[in-house]
Amino acid sequence: MPELPDVENFKQYIDATSLHHKISETEVHNTKILKGISKARLADTLNGTSLESCRRHGKYLLIKTSGDVWLVMHFGMTGSLNYAKQEKDLPEHSRLILNFENGSRLAYISMRLFGRIRVIGSMNAFIRQNKLGPDAADISLEDFEKTLHKSRAAVKTALMDQSRIAGLGNLYTDEILFEAHIPPNQKSQSLDAAQIKILYQKMEYVLKEATRRHAVPKNMPQTWLLPHRERNGRCPRCHNPFKTAKINGRTAYYCSSCQQE
DNA sequence: CTAGATGTTAAGGT
DNA sequence: CACCTTAACATCTA
Question: Model-level pTM?
Fold first, then answer.
């Protein structure tokens, strides 16, 4: 799941459910998800504090605690959150559970254990240290153009490079390029100003609409690529079968007739 | 049964 | 240095 629209939904979910409850107990069911902190230290850090506010940068969720540190979550390829008021059954693969004093709890779920949780002191330092570029939902057209023209790689590769632009992954770059009628393997540098502008506008549109639709690919408009992004899927515009290509180590889906240089 | 899956990181090569 | 490919991670599903 977790590209920018998914993580933005997680942010809204935390805001709606989990702020300002005192944490009574922190459970870690698999320490593989912890980065740079032990189970015991994490519990020490969180117990007795509460989550106060929540921000997102790229695919990272950063939650400020009353203990004046940030709890940082990354969701890997399969990750989500689940909040429940009562003693409900924990979802499969719950790896971190924050139990709140009021009886509710927040579970961090990571099936494949690719997600990571850490504690940091400063959000800006974290972004710097991890070399994250500006957030895709926040970058200016000028910076967008600059960063794409600096890259000699394919435009899909440049868009997915978290140090250039943070938040786009394999699925949404496919969608954005489809909407912009640009083939994924076109060189980023070769895009002219008009194409860059269209790409930028499509990026804004796709991210906003996908977030609004809760980041479920199958629930995106039927005119989009995503609901048809599967083997034997066909372009909703021209009905040609989608092509695939390995770009940046990932499978790109695109329409060779609608997306041409 | 096998291959591939929304992500990141490391290693090695051009 | 910029970029590419491959592999690894752990688990599930088509």
Answer: 0.96
